[in-house]
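Question (not urgent): is this output format expected?
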Amino acid sequence: MTKKAKIVLLAGSLLLGGAALQPHAPAQARTVHLTAYNTSTVVSGTVEGAEIMPFHLALREGQRLDVLCHSRKKGVFFVVKDPSGTVIYKSAESPQPDRWTGQAAFPGKYTLAVYQQHPATRKGQPAFFRLHLTVAEASDTGLTP
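Got this back:
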């Protein structure tokens, strides 16, 4: 093999290797629709590496949201943000990182974002997850807004 061919192969492999290290494009947010007759659902997906998978859910003031996150891999967590974008819960900082119950302080679109925080994240490994979401009215919970 000639010196020129070796240089071309080396340059090509460096370009391809660099492209593989680029971060994933952010995942598109999915909207979760619930009705008065269907107050719970299960959504699922796969996060890869440092990817964040967002879900939007419209809540009225006083509604209670129950979240249960299942994954076979360790290090899969979620955050909950209120309509203003303020983080109101981080499961990675909780003693029970797979569940959360909270009440909507005001109406709007809340965001649940699933992500990995584990050595597998740096390796770009995928992790499947399943979120069980239940919304209850304040009158059903005994709580008042």
